[in-house]
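Need residues for this backbone.
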């Protein structure tokens, strides 16, 4: 038995000697949302990347179009020529911060806002000595929204609201009780420029079958941003949100009141 255990430990030690994990490099990216305009002094802005690790950090900026879906916003795999990044690549020393300028160079007369992502991708490094290595590569995304100078202000309104039960989390036991009910609502933007849900306040109301109020809560702009996010709603589109507030009962009807201009 002793010999068997020794053989296992020896095999593990040999395996670890064959693979060295690269020294951790980590980064922070600010801001996570960049608001630009198609013309004028606000056509460009900066994204700052800080190397919080202990080794030099090689990074590259990749610019892609955003996809505005009915219930989320995400990066596509389509590169864009409407933006440029200066520089496109950099090696950031430990503890240092590199500023990347993101500039809109697309059509200045488009009559609706456009939306992109700046992906800050850590590049792999070559390890000297021919060692095999496992590298942990970081990839952050900053959203870039470009407002049209001719489209006017956004126009956000609540289209509908309902009480829903979120899906069971992955790995939940078969006999686990259902998740608490929450209020879901859809916001429509009738304007041709994007708007933010977090630029106004939200009032959530639940009533029973007789119309009696069972629940009411108002979220200010900072509460909305913290609990739901910025809540981007693209031009002439609708987006569904779920307020992360548990209700005591799944019964009745819901109403959501939006106050504020949206941007």
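Answer:
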């Amino acid at each position: 038995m002793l010999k068997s255990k020794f053989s296992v430990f020896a095999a593990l030690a040999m395996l670890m000697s064959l693979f060295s994990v690269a020294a951790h490099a980590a980064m922070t990216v600010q801001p996570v949302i960049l608001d630009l305009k198609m013309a004028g002094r606000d056509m460009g802005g900066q994204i700052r990347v800080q190397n919080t690790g202990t080794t030099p950090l090689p990074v590259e900026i990749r610019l892609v179009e955003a996809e505005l879906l009915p219930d989320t916003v995400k990066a596509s795999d389509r590169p864009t020529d409407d933006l440029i990044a200066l520089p496109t690549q950099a090696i950031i020393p430990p503890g240092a911060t590199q500023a990347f300028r993101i500039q809109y160079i697309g059509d200045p007369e488009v009559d609706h806002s456009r939306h992109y992502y700046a992906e800050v991708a850590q590049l792999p490094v070559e390890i000297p000595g021919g060692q095999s290595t496992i590298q942990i590569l970081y990839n952050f995304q900053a959203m870039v929204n470009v407002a049209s100078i001719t489209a006017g202000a956004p126009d956000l309104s609540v289209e509908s609201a309902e009480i829903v039960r979120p899906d069971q989390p992955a790995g939940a036991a078969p006999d686990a009780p259902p998740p608490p009910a929450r209020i879901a609502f859809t916001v429509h933007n009738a304007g041709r420029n994007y708007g933010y849900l977090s630029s106004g306040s939200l009032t959530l109301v639940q009533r029973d079958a007789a119309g009696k109020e069972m629940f009411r809560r108002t979220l200010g702009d900072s509460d909305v941003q913290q609990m739901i996010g910025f809540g981007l709603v693209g031009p002439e589109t609708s987006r569904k949100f779920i307020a992360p507030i548990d209700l005591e009962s799944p019964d009745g009807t819901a109403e959501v009141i939006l106050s504020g201009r949206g941007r």
